[in-house]
Design goal:
By secondary structure, this protein is of the alpha+beta class. It is 36% helix and 25% strand. It is built from five helices and nine strands, in the order H-H-E-E-H-H-E-E-E-E-E-E-E-H. The strands form three sheets. Strands 3, 4, 5 and 6 form a four-stranded antiparallel sheet that branches. A three-stranded antiparallel sheet has the order 7-8-9, with helices on one face. The protein has a two-stranded antiparallel ribbon with strand order 1-2. Helix 3 packs antiparallel against helix 4 (93-112). It is elongated and about 55 Å long. 15% of the residues are buried. InterPro entries: DUF3119. Pfam families: DUF3119.
């Protein structure tokens, strides 16, 4: 359209030139805005006799998906602490210690660790204020992975989910595997994973 405006510029009266100059500036501005991610802008020009009419059609903003944060689930740490208590009661102190320590660790983590499913990625955050969790202590990088990089994911075991596994190519091209204890509502976690990362190959909701 800018080319069209320039071609007729010299054949119009001075008053018309001012209007066309204004329209040229407007078109340049709109050409830049059209590529903004929040909306699209299209210029439609028609001539009506000696008038040039410009219409701007603004597209609707694409609605992003709602952020999902599965609720904490204390079943696994409670079961582990119950096992540890039973082992202590039967004088099996050696296996009771690791079971009890793991139960306490998961109990603490359940109160603070959150899985946040936003519009484009899964992120691990800390506390009710959803503070950043920092770098991953095992493989490095931020604890945030885009759904588009997920290769596969699974629940072990769907009837009583204990571990969630997923593999992504964001951390390294050949793929990085992650395991997390399911200290969240298993159904909410499963539904969020299916919606954002696609269906699992073998897991199913129970």
């Amino acid at each position: 359209m800018a080319t069209t405006l320039l071609s007729v510029h010299h054949f119009l009266p001075s008053q018309r030139r001012e209007k066309i100059g204004y329209l040229s500036a407007l078109n340049s501005f709109c050409g830049q805005v059209a590529f903004a991610p929040s909306f699209s802008l299209r210029q439609i020009a028609r001539s009506h006799g000696n008038r040039l009419v410009v219409r701007s059609v603004v597209g609707r903003k694409v609605k992003s998906r709602e952020t999902v944060i599965p609720e904490p689930d204390y079943r696994i740490p409670i079961v582990l602490l119950g096992i540890a208590g039973g082992l202590v009661y039967t004088d099996n102190l050696i296996p009771a210690v690791p079971a009890g320590l793991l139960g306490l660790l998961l109990l603490f983590q359940t109160t603070r660790v959150r899985f946040v499913f936003d519009d484009e990625a899964l992120e691990v955050r800390i506390g009710d204020q959803l503070q950043e969790s920092g770098e991953n202590v095992f493989v490095g990088g931020k604890n945030r992975w885009k759904y588009s990089t997920f290769v596969n994911w699974e629940f072990w075991w769907p009837n009583f989910p204990i571990l969630v596994y997923f593999k992504e190519t964001q951390t390294k091209p050949e793929g990085q595997i992650h395991f997390f204890p399911i200290i969240f509502n298993g159904k909410q976690l499963y539904d969020a994973m299916v919606e954002r990362a696609g269906p699992s190959k073998t897991s199913g909701p129970r």
